[in-house]
Amino acid sequence: MASGDDDDPIIQEIDVYLARSLVEKLYLFQYPVRPGSMSYNNVTHLGAKIKPKQQKVELEVAMDTMSPNYSRSKGEQIALNVDGMSSEDSNVYTTKMMDKQTFSSIQATTNTSRYAAAVFHKGELHLTPLQGILQMRPSFTYLDKADTKHREREAANEAGDSSQDEAEDDVKQITVRFSRPESEQARQRRIQSYEFLQKKQAEEPWVHLHYHAIKDSRSEHERQYLYCQAMDTTENTELVKTPREYLSMLMPPLAEEKVVKPVGPSNVLSMAQLRTLPLGDQVKTLMKNVKVMPFANLMGLLASGTDSTAVLRCIQQVALLVQGNWVVKSDVLYPKNTCSSHSGVPAEVLCRGRDFVMWRFTIERTLMRKEVAAIIKLPPEDVKDFLEQMSVPRLNRGWEFLLPTDQDFVKKHPDVAQRQHMLWTGIQSKLEKVFNFSKDDFVHKKDVQMEPVHLSGDQRLKAAQENAQEKHSILQRELDAHRLKASRLSGSQGPSGASVTVKQEPVSDSEEPMDTGAALTNGSVNGYPAASSPTSDPHNGHGQAFTPELQDFVKNTFRKHYVLCLSEVKRLFNLHLASLPSGHAAYGHVTDRMLQDTILHSHCKQILVPFPPQSSAAADEQKVFGLWESGETFDKLRQILFEIFMKNYRVRRNVIQTRLTQELGDAVNKTDVDRLLKECCISLGGMWYLKGTVHS
């Protein structure tokens, strides 16, 4: 013995034997829904059966109907639902009571090569490899039978005796359909489907078994096979290995692991596997799976240090630029000699239709599905697939492009953007010939010279507001000149001798009309003239009019939501306007400033949440308002919460709990805190944020 082993002496040597008598026959049963102290050893087993190939086992055990924990009424009701009133041999419960239950198995693991049952006896350890490890769980197939019985009874009641009056020799029309030959791709999907696997499992017959209790003589006899029958070591050569072979058995090489790995879907690829591919294949695989992606996100998915110029070369081979973002090419998704899984349309036709949808998104933010389908004339399922790949549905607005316009990429890579624009010009010419349309059919005359990358909705709104403000200023100057001229013609003195002064306050940026779509344009609501404005509120320092209807809307909204950013209030107001009957004109001309002032005069306050400098939230999203006073004692808790969020935009629950306890003492309980957080906050990653300040 080496001197280094003196501190770790060998205490005992144990001989290990490999028992092979029960190989391919020994299973380990686990009962995960039953505590270990409550075994089924003393429970009467009524039956057992197995499907060896699938390692599927079912055990039928009796239930103690005399136990004080057994509900006799429930047991009788279940038996009645399953078997009905009839007394037949095929009934599940022959005693008219649920007196048994079935356990069905699932495989705990598909690889049992490292598991064995061990018996230690007289200084010897005997190991028997396990054929399977099965978890036994209660089966509820009797509920399916009860549901089937219920449907059969309903069908019988509806049918009545009408079937007896029908002639047996009625002539019925038969429709004969011929299916197209199944492609290899469709066959692979079919054999991997749940329905196909269920059918294959049902084809294997059950093998019925006889159960022997743990203390039965047959069980004692079978347990003897857990010991190695041939104790002569010369015959047991399985464990006589060299140190290197033994180490290899303990830690097999990775190549052996590939055999036992479950087969996953063909389109699943880990990031570690992805980065072993060439750069071009990495980009193609990512775009094929994601379909729409900004260039910055693509660089973030690739390995650090990847050359962006090389990525640009690769991305242009598999994707096209749409609104500054990259969308995978149609021929990558639909290769030649393939067809639609929905309709069987050839890949060439699918590519033309999808290219049309992509081209439309280069000039518009939203598309109407019916308009697209009317031009490309493809089945609705295929059209929906095209739209779902690159857009999202919006209420009453059609399908909007998935991502905002990436102007940063266009400014940073103008040569790529110009090259893509020229490429789209060529694609447009081909599409015009195929679908017989003109670009003028979709773009207004003033937009014919628009830039190759389309502006987002917010950018178009800002441009429209600036245009409206400019026109308003011109009209106001003309009105001032007209009034001044009229005052000079009528004299410089009014009826009472006082001087008449015509003065118009300049319109500030915040006075621009709110983005309410077609509902608010030029002082009109829903296309009808606005009602006359009521008398201005003396408390409003901006000269704006508070309509009672607008105040009621704001109060009701904040009593329901408690915390809202300005953009969300505007969205809710638009929805409210859209729900009004045609011709309703109670709100008049509502601007952003009017809406903010109405909020502040409706017992609400602006919560100055300190957004992080890198926050991408728009200006309207950073204007957060909360209900300050509602006339109840709970207002104090809400006010303390708002004060906490004026110092940090995210807070932990214990900080809120501590501050409330300091301010209000022990009067604050867990229920109050839960209500407060539910009304005003949202939880993300263990932190709490005010509603409207983050997007979950």
UniProtKB/TrEMBL annotation:
Gene Ontology CC annotation, any one: RNA polymerase III complex
Listed Polar residues bias regions: 489-502
Protein's GO biological process: DNA-templated transcription
InterPro entries named among the record's database cross-references: RNA_pol_III_Rpc5 (IPR006886), RPC5_C (IPR045576)
Magnesium listed as a keyword: no
Annotated region (Disordered), positions in chain: 148-171, 486-544
Matches recorded under Pfam families: RPC5, RPC5_C
Domain DNA-directed RNA polymerase III subunit RPC5 C-terminal positions: 444-696
Keywords, ordered alphabetically: DNA-directed RNA polymerase, Transcription
PANTHER family per UniProt: DNA-DIRECTED RNA POLYMERASE III SUBUNIT RPC5, DNA-DIRECTED RNA POLYMERASES III 80 KDA POLYPEPTIDE RNA POLYMERASE III SUBUNIT 5
Name the UniProt record assigns to this protein: DNA-directed RNA polymerase III subunit RPC5 isoform X1
Gene that encodes it: polr3e
